[in-house]
TrEMBL record:
UniProt cross-references to InterPro entries, sorted A to Z: Acyl_CoA_acyltransferase, GNAT_dom, Ribosomal_N-acetyltransferase
Name of the top EC class for this enzyme: transferase
Molecular function as annotated in GO: acyltransferase activity
Pfam short name (any one): Acetyltransf_3
Chain intervals for the UniProt region annotation (Disordered): 179-205
Domain N-acetyltransferase: 10-171
Keywords: Acyltransferase, Transferase
Protein name as it appears in the record: GNAT family N-acetyltransferase
Lineage summary: Bacteria, Bacillati, Actinomycetota, Actinomycetes, Micromonosporales
Record-listed E.C. numbers: 2.3.-.-
Domain of life of the native organism: Bacteria
Segments of skewed composition (Acidic residues): 179-191
Length: 205
């Protein structure tokens, strides 16, 4: 399958059910930092459940309703990004992401998500790209800002996690707004991600 080079030895590739063992090893390293932001991190705890997570996205891809991609750094799976939802007929999609500590501070998520936005808008004709994250996940909202997204508002107490209901910020980017998508990519990108990590935040949406 295809491989998209990112930078510094990193690659973006499809993440599929046959890679469940590798995905599980990655989840074991990432779970503590990713679980608060990505619900399926806490349920992918053995080979069967890891396979089920990947199979769910494979089924979405077969229906053209979602897709899952991993980010490999020097040959090791360290994170990924996905179309949580994809509706070509309506011209809308939602993008999410996650990253284990070994991949942080390199701008990998911003680079990878830009590739997904470019494909969604310019190849598939998507008009509106959404990004959702908890307000306390400041590293994720910082990525949305670097991508040029607009903060549309907040869904109050819509996301339950371990008995507590959390707000979700809604960010969006419209097709006509992607022309300057590379304008914000600079040394500030890495600095912004590092700041989020030092505050204890995982770059996940």
């Amino acid at each position: 399958m295809f491989t998209v080079p990112l930078a510094g030895g990193a690659e973006l590739r499809p993440l599929e059910p046959w890679q469940a063992a590798e995905f599980l090893e990655h989840m074991d390293r990432a779970r503590a930092t990713v679980d608060p932001w990505i619900p399926w991190a806490g349920v992918s705890t053995d080979l069967d459940t890891a396979t089920a997570t990947l199979q769910r996205y494979a089924d979405l891809a077969a229906r053209d309703a979602g897709r899952l991609f991993g980010i490999w750094l020097d040959g090791t799976l360290v994170g990924g990004t996905m179309f949580v939802a994809f509706n070509a007929e309506a011209g809308t999609c939602e993008i999410g992401c996650w990253l284990e500590p070994a991949g942080q501070g390199r701008g990998l998520i911003t680079m990878a998500v830009r590739r997904l936005i470019d494909w969604a808008v310019h190849t598939r004709g998507i008009h509106r790209v959404e990004w959702r994250c908890r307000p306390d996940n400041t590293a994720s909202s910082a990525v949305a800002r670097r991508l040029g997204m607009h903060r549309d508002g907040v869904l109050r107490e819509v996301a339950p996690y371990r008995g507590v209901r959390h707000d979700l910020e809604i960010w969006s980017l419209l097709a006509g707004e992607t022309a300057d998508e590379s304008a914000g990519e600079s040394a500030d990108e890495s600095a912004g991600e590092t700041a989020g990590e030092s505050a204890g935040e995982s770059i996940a949406s």
